[in-house]
Amino acid sequence: MPQTLEKYRRIDRRKNWLASIAVALSLALLLAILLKALLLAIGEPMLPSPVRDVAVFALILFVPCLSAGMRIGSSLIARYDGEVMRSPPATEPGSKRAGPLDAVQQHAWAALESWCRAGAGDGRSPFWRPRQLPDVPERFSLAVMVGGNSGARSQLAETFALRLDRNDELAALSADSRLKGMCLKLAVKWHELWWWRKRHPRQPWDCGYVLEHPAAMARLAHFRPRRPTLMIADELRNDSLRQILHALGTAQAGFGHPVRLLVIDAALPSMLELHFDTDTQWGHTPVHDLGQVSVIDLSGTRMADNGERRPPP
Predict the structure, then answer these.
(1) Most-buried pick from 99, 158, 221, 228 (CB within 10 A)?
(2) What number is the average pLDDT over the span 159-185?
(3) How far apart, in Å, do the first and last CA atoms of the chain sit?
């Protein structure tokens, strides 16, 4: 297992370097051509070999362009990590998923949106430092959804994920016209390339169910999000959840985008050792120094200090 994982990491690093060099060379060549054209426009005499001049300029500019090339190149080739997550199934073309149905689900939906966006930052890095990680106040955070029946919890989380990752929208556009679907993909990718710009308000997230097999758990320790990410742990075993929290909690310092883990279960996982603030209905866990945990209860009841449900006053 470790050898296979290390092999994949070497391949990923090689792809990133090749993409970075290709982008840096392209940028350097473009700037060299523009520089040569500018020199000619201001009266620089024509030399016997303008191609040689452009080549020399490009070589000089390659090193300063490499930093931008590394940022743009890695963004260009970044793909959804299907080794770690399973994407929620898209809705059939022509059909539409229902959103939150009642007041309790609407409250849960709003809580999910607030939790995902809180501490996400604006996604920008300084123009002159393209490789600097964006300022993300909360790179990783945890929420737990409990109560209600199993089907209602899973359905609400799946519908929320599909709305967040815009896969339903992409499927509808692609069913109408492949060109429209391709245009949406290109527009998203185009906006992601420019590191100094704010994250688009409708930036799609990567959403999926965390895979529980050993290979996925091993790879999770080296997970790096390509965009804001929502991971769903639907009724996983306590030992698997412990591994996931340890891997993501340890790796979060290297996250360039916010990562949110939504744990779904019938009751609060005991391994979290949650302590509650009954006024805010936020929990606090000492596990891996995760701190605050958003608790979303579909039963419409409130939590007592010990984490047990109690009817509203």
Answers:
(1) 228
(2) 88
(3) 53
